[in-house]
Amino acid sequence: MDRTPEPDIFSPSEEAAEYHAMDHSAVNRQFVDELLTGPTGPLVVDLGCGPAGIPIELCQRSTEYEVIATDGEVEMLEIAKREIDIAGCLGQISLNHVQVECMEMYEDGMADTVISNSLLHHLDQPQKGLEVAVRLTRKGGRIFIRDLARPENQEEIEAQVAAYCPEESENGQQLFRQSLHAALTLNEIRNIARGLGIPEDHVQMTSDRHWTIDWCRQT
Question: Is the residue at 157 inside a domain?
């Protein structure tokens, strides 16, 4: 099944509200658990932070982290600002409205760690997101990126929607369905990563629906 970029059938405000209404707490917690098994921070850049669930989870683990959280949608960042305030993390997390394809003003090698969860499938050119992550990571720094893996057929997509979104709204289920259609396969992301110097053994399936890049930049 070929990759199908996400259609614009929801307004940014509708999409942000639907995404925020979905329960990502377990996924965010697992992401941070696995992130903290390797070198992390203190300066972390999150590409495509959404409502900031992962930056909040990370900063609630320790006050040593400073997170620059970026997103291309103002509506997501408005939700993120409220959530960060409620969580008491305003002093650790700064929000930046910027498209990942337009981050030229961010310095090369500025971050100790670059993270991203489920951003690349939203991009028309996913390789651009990974290129930015590599550029922003300092020598010796770490990239930890996770995203959905595209199933082989529509039947598998519907099975995942039924398994992981049974309690979500119809719109929420459709967002997940669209994301699966737009996701990269393991082989596709390995090919992109290889072109940027990331060995394929650092790009692995880490669940039945996610692949993860976990790599420390050497040069």
Answer: no
Is position 179 within any domain?
Answer: no
Domain harbouring 51, CATH code: 3.40.50.150
Residue 9 has pLDDT above 90, yes or no: no
Q: What is the pTM of this model?
A: 0.96
**Alpha carbons 110 and 66: distance in angstroms, whole number:** 12
Q: Which domain holds residue 78?
A: 12-150+185-216
For residue 104, give both structure tokens.
């030229």
| Number of domains into which the chain is organized | 1
Stronger pLDDT, 23 or 61, i.e. the higher one: 61
Query: Beta-strand (E) ranges in the chain?
Result: 43-47, 66-71, 93-97, 111-117, 137-148, 203-205, 210-216
Residue 144 contacts residue 38 (beta carbons within 8 Å): yes
205: confidence class by pLDDT, cuts 50, 70, 90 = very high
pLDDT at 187: 98
Q: Is residue 119 within 8 Å of residue 134, measured between CB atoms?
A: no
> Tokens standing for 196?
């940027």
Q: How far apart are alpha carbons 29 and 52 in whole angstroms?
A: 12
Residue 174 lies in a domain: no
> Do strands 210-216 and 203-205 pair parallel, antiparallel, or not at all (unpaired)?
antiparallel
Measure the CA angle with vertex 71, ends 161 and 41; round to 5°: 100
Handedness of CA 89, 18, 122, 175 (dihedral sign): positive
Q: Quote the CA–CA distance of 83 and 22 in Å, as a whole number.
A: 14
35 is a domain residue: yes
